[in-house]
Amino acid sequence: KKVLHIVGARPNFMKVAPIHRAISERGVLAQKLVHTGQHYDVKMSDVFFTDLGMPAPDIHLGIGSGSHAEQTARLMIELEKVFASEKPELVSVVGDVNSTLAAALVAVKMGIPIGHVEAGLRSFDRAMPEEINRILTDSIADLLLTPSSDADANLIREGVEPQRIRLVGNVMIDSLLAAREKALKLSTLADMGLTARGYAVCTLHRASNVDDAKVLGGLLSALGHLSHRLPVVFPVHPRTRKRIAETGLEASLARTPGLRLVDPMGYLEFLALTSQARLVFTDSGGLQEETTVLGIPCLTVRENTERPITVDVGTNLVVGTEPARIQQVAERILDGQEKKGRVPDLWDGRSGERIAQVYEEFLGVGRTPR
Ligand code: UD1
Fold this sequence. Notes:
Helices cover 46% and strands 14% of the residues. It is of the alpha/beta class. The strands form 2 sheets. A 7-stranded parallel β-sheet has the order 3-2-1-4-5-6-7, sandwiched between helices. It has a 6-stranded parallel β-sheet with strand order 10-9-8-11-12-13, sandwiched between helices. Uridine-diphosphate-N-acetylglucosamine (UD1) is lined by residues 9-11, 38-41, 44, 65, 71, 96-98, 129-130, 205, 237-239, 242.
């Protein structure tokens, strides 16, 4: 029986790598990796395959960027051809990007069962393209593999039959735990002239934060102010890089040399950076989870999160996008009042294994999962 994994954008790679590895080690199922090419820059894609020890994709579609409709439509047209020729018994999708939804939509119409990894997360903000992708993918997937029990509760509330839901834990944390030691051996900090706990890290790429010049300008000004207290390292997503150039914010950035804009980083280098930071500012979903496991204070610059467990038990604080508020919370942390957290249940590095077991059971091969 064959599983087809679909990856497309940066946050997908660290989720698929542990599932692919587990399936390959167990040797029960056949599998192929399809890269849609939603992300195509070397620094947004290729480097992750190397860093995560993942084999090169078996099939690469080279879809690239476009409006949501263009991108999703192109994805669907190409994926339909792949599914028709590969005839998989299961299509496995992860996360909430356009490639996830496109693959699920094509599979369900072709009668191919779907496993959705990272199911059940909800920000309850339908202005987010990712929220739409999550709701739609979950509604048509056969297996909903969830990272935490809040996700199960969301799905049950939406009327999903409990037998479709499997709590498997957070598979992205498998990648983090497997790579942590290696990352800490890198000379990333020394190369950048940083010392452990002596700097902050920032990432911003969400449309709601970077496409509006006023919001983006406010966020950069808050970070600029804080950079007088400690260096702030900001690996810039291509989308954000474009907006900064378009909106003429480069001039004001020149006045805050402590706010250091750098190119997107590889998985290991970035893990080296985040795991030794004093605090992290982000609008990413994955980074909220990673900082929770690493025990590093995280300020989520959004109005909501689809990952409330990182706030309930982890180090995450959802602080919104108002510059004064961000600065105030950050200052408080720098003054020593930081929130302590713990690692959520089943974020233990074994989720890939559990997912492989669920897939085997679903396809009627192998043993019953625990
Ligand atoms: C996508 C996901 C988002 C995820 C993010 C992680 C959707 C709807 N959004 O957002 O959920 O958090 O990936 O990075 O799927 N670009 C490049 N090089 C690349 C890829 C993109 O330059 O390799 C630029 C292009 O100008 C492109 C823009 O970034 O138009 C946006 O890319 P897109 O894939 O549409 O969405 P992301 O913002 O990356």
